[in-house]
Write a structure and sequence with these properties.
Length: about 140
């Protein structure tokens, strides 16, 4: 079974986003969880007790999605995301809550669709704020 088959109902209910947008959300979620684990490991190395593993917040997911998009697509990140139907952090919320409604993701009682609104401005975060980092430094 393919991702397209798994998400056929979601894609049929909301055609604003492409299959690539949903695949990106899943990848961004994993990327963000990995970044959190690394940060917890660094905290543990400084003698701090690690925070127990927890849910990724909407803000954390938006920031992780930004970092992942810049990592994969550089200065083209905004263009690529726009092609998939993603124009703002609010779209990340729409994607996530579409997946929650389909049973592909879970949310906590405190999660709200509105928590994804205006986390950052796309143009600023994905283009004007972009810094080239040589491969040997990253």
């Amino acid at each position: 079974m393919s991702l397209r088959d798994d998400l056929a109902g979601v894609l049929a209910r909301d055609s604003r986003y492409t299959i690539h947008a949903y695949a990106f959300i899943f990848e961004a979620l994993e990327f963000t969880k990995n970044q959190k684990r690394k940060a917890q490991g660094r905290a543990r190395g400084r003698g701090k007790s690690p925070e127990p593993p927890r849910h990724v917040s909407p803000r954390e997911l938006c920031l992780g999605a930004r970092d992942l998009a810049l990592h994969h697509y550089g200065l083209l990140a905004k263009i690529v995301l726009n092609e998939w139907g993603i124009h703002s952090t609010s779209d990340f919320g729409e994607l996530v809550f579409n997946l929650v409604a389909a049973g592909d993701l879970e949310k906590t009682p405190s999660d709200s669709r509105a928590d994804f609104d205006d986390v950052y401005e796309f143009e600023e975060a994905l283009q004007r704020g972009y810094v080239l980092v040589p491969d040997d430094v990253a």
